[in-house]
C-alpha cells in the first residue's frame, strides 16, 4: 500500500467538492478499489468515502418501484426487499461472503461494472434507472462495456430505481473461490414483455439476450428456451475457469432454470 488521504463527507455536495480535487477517487465499500490500490493498479492521492452520506443509504418501495440508495450495503438490500422482490434479495444475499455483503454497496458495484458482478444483471433485466447527482440514466444506456459506464468523471450514483416485475429469478453459476458469476442470469417478466440479462459471460460485459426475450415474451415456458440456439461462444470470456463455448452453453442452461424458478 502507499500513503493517501481519506475524506469522509456527510453530504453529496461535500463529496462532489472533494472529488473535484486532483487525483481524488470515490470510495464506496472498497471491495474492488482497495485490492486495486494494493496492486498499484490505481494510485489516487485522496479517497472520498461515501459511507458517511446518510441520504445515499436505505431502501424504499413505492408504486411498484424499489429505490436503493447508492451507499446501501448488499446485506441491507437482501434484508429489506425479501418480501417485495425476492429475486433481488436472493442476488444481494449471495454476493461474496458476509464481510463483502456488509461492506460492498450497490452504487460501487454498478460504478465499477465488473463483467462478472451480480448487480449489473439486475439493473439491466429490470430496466432500472441509475440516479446520479446530475441526472437519471436508463440501464440500457448505462452499461457500455467491460468496466465501462455512462458515468462522467466525478459523477456519483446516489440511488437506483428498480421496477418490480410480475415474476423474476436470478440464477448464478459461481466461481467457488471468489463467488463471482462464471455466468449469471437475471430474468424479469413484466406486463409488456420479458427481459433477460446475462453477466459473467461476455467480453463486452453484461448484456441482454434478445432471442430469449422474444421467445419468452411470446411463451413464458422452459420449452420456449429449449428451442433456441445458445449464444455464440466467440465473444464470450475464455479463461482457466471455462471456455467461451462452455459459458455460452451455461447461458441457455441457466436461462431455462431461471424460467422454471420464476414460474
UniProtKB/TrEMBL annotation:
Family matches, as SMART domains: CO_deh_flav_C
InterPro entries in the record: CO_DH_flav_C (IPR005107), CO_DH_flav_C_dom_sf (IPR036683), Diverse_Substr_Oxidored (IPR051312), FAD-bd_PCMH (IPR016166), FAD-bd_PCMH-like_sf (IPR036318), FAD-bd_PCMH_sub1 (IPR016167), FAD-bd_PCMH_sub2 (IPR016169), Mopterin_DH_FAD-bd (IPR002346)
Pfam family, one: FAD_binding_5
MF terms in GO: FAD binding; oxidoreductase activity
Superkingdom: Bacteria
Signal peptide from the UniProt entry: none
This protein's name: Carbon-monoxide dehydrogenase medium subunit
Organism lineage string: Bacteria, Pseudomonadati, Pseudomonadota, Alphaproteobacteria, Rhodobacterales
Amino acid at each position: 500500500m502507499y500513503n493517501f488521504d481519506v475524506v469522509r463527507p456527510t453530504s453529496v455536495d461535500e463529496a462532489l467538492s472533494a472529488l473535484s480535487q486532483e487525483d481524488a477517487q470515490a470510495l464506496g465499500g472498497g471491495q474492488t478499489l482497495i485490492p486495486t490500490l494494493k496492486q498499484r493498479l490505481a494510485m489516487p492521492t485522496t479517497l472520498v468515502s461515501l459511507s458517511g452520506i446518510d441520504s445515499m443509504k436505505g431502501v424504499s418501495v413505492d408504486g411498484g418501484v424499489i429505490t436503493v440508495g447508492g451507499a446501501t450495503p448488499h446485506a441491507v438490500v437482501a434484508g429489506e426487499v425479501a418480501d417485495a422482490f425476492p429475486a433481488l434479495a436472493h442476488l444481494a444475499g449471495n454476493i461474496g461472503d458476509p464481510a463483502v455483503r456488509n461492506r460492498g454497496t450497490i452504487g460501487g458495484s454498478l460504478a465499477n461494472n465488473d463483467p462478472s458482478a451480480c448487480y449489473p444483471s439486475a439493473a439491466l433485466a429490470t430496466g432500472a434507472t441509475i440516479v446520479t447527482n446530475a441526472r437519471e440514466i436508463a440501464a440500457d444506456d448505462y452499461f457500455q462495456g467491460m468496466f465501462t459506464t455512462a458515468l462522467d468523471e466525478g459523477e456519483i450514483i446516489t440511488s437506483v430505481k428498480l421496477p418490480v416485475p410480475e415474476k423474476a429469478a436470478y440464477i448464478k453459476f459461481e466461481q467457488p473461490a471468489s463467488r463471482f458469476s462464471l455466468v449469471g442470469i437475471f430474468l424479469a417478466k413484466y406486463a409488456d414483455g420479458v427481459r433477460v440479462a446475462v453477466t459473467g459471460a461476455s467480453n463486452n460485459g453484461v448484456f441482454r439476450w434478445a432471442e430469449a426475450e422474444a421467445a419468452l415474451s411470446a411463451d413464458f415456458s422452459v420449452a420456449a428456451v429449449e428451442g433456441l440456439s445458445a449464444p455464440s461462444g466467440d465473444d464470450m470470456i475464455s479463461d482457466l475457469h471455462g471456455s467461451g463455448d462452455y459459458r455460452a452453453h451455461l447461458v441457455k442452461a441457466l436461462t431455462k432454470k431461471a424460467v422454471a424458478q420464476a414460474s
